[in-house]
Design a protein that fits this description.
5-stranded mixed beta sheet; mainly beta; 282 residues
């Protein structure tokens, strides 16, 4: 009787990714972002239209970090987690992408959401250290493109779904009492149902403080504000402004410790609403 030899112990059995030993043999397999090539050992990028609902996973360019990524790649990975999750944490293991002006020769792009609803979160090229980032949605799109010139190692990241609400995401009719950013609960997606009376109360720590609101982003119907608008109140009832997309005013300061922001949106499936910051100062 002969003892089984574990072929995976030597050079991973020649497998690019995963080597699984069996009695008298072994098999190679790939992580979820790749498929097994015809030689049954190599793993090639499987990236077009890739969607996963797994709460944890690994996404990387082919052979990272042992050899350059594929020329003329055009890869898309979509992480679309179940509704029990609120956001996705991306943890970068490494990144080396051809550096060029405006990342025109190759890039890694991270977007909140998917399809036409996706909203740019970050874009990278060169030898950047992206570290860790958290999306504001449970759906994230990751795009990687390359040309046929200088190919380097590419990138590798791990991700996990988070159940806690991400920073800066508040539900309608909540009170905000810290320096932060806030937006419609659906942002950066387009709201799919009418938004009726979404009110945010901004309350400074004491009477010695005032409130400053800065509008960072607006995506609303550009007309007479009859369908979609933001109402800004100094205190609880004194209206300071009524804003729609045509407004040039982006900053508002209270006379006391209270402000209110009210959003009304009736044009569904077209607009994202707003994104703003709040600062308390004295």
């Amino acid at each position: 009787m002969f003892a089984d030899i574990n072929e995976c112990h030597v050079d991973n059995g020649g497998c690019d990714h995963i080597c699984e030993n069996s009695k008298g043999s072994y098999t190679c397999s790939c992580n979820t972002t790749h498929t097994l090539a015809a030689d049954q050992k190599s793993c090639v990028t499987s990236c077009t239209g890739y969607v996963t609902q797994q709460p944890t996973g690994h996404i990387a360019t082919t052979h990272f970090p042992h050899s350059p990524y594929t020329s003329n790649a055009n890869c898309t990975w979509i992480i679309d987690l179940p509704t029990t999750y609120n956001s996705v944490e991306l943890m970068f293991d490494g990144m080396s992408i051809e550096e060029s002006a405006n990342c025109s020769n190759g890039s890694l792009t991270i977007l909140n959401g998917k399809d036409e609803d996706a909203f740019l979160l970050a874009s990278f090229c060169g030898n950047q250290s992206a570290g860790t980032m958290q999306t504001s949605m449970r759906t994230v799109t990751i795009k990687f493109v390359s040309d046929d010139k200088l190919n380097t190692d590419g990138f590798s990241l791990h991700y996990k779904g988070l159940t806690e609400r991400p920073e800066g995401v508040y539900l309608c009719n909540e009170t905000i009492q810290m320096n932060t950013t806030f937006a419609l609960p659906s942002f950066p997606s387009k709201y799919t149902e009418p938004v009726q009376d979404c009110l945010y109360s901004l309350v400074a720590p004491t009477k010695l403080y005032k409130v400053k609101i800065t509008l960072l982003y607006l995506d609303m119907q550009n007309a007479d504000c009859s369908e979609d608008r933001i109402e800004v109140y100094d205190g609880r009832r004194s209206k300071m402004a009524e804003i729609c997309s045509g407004s040039n005013v982006s900053e508002f300061v209270s006379t006391g410790r209270h402000m209110r922001v009210r959003y009304i949106g009736n044009t569904v499936n077209k607009y994202r609403g707003f994104h703003a910051s709040v600062t308390f100062f004295h």
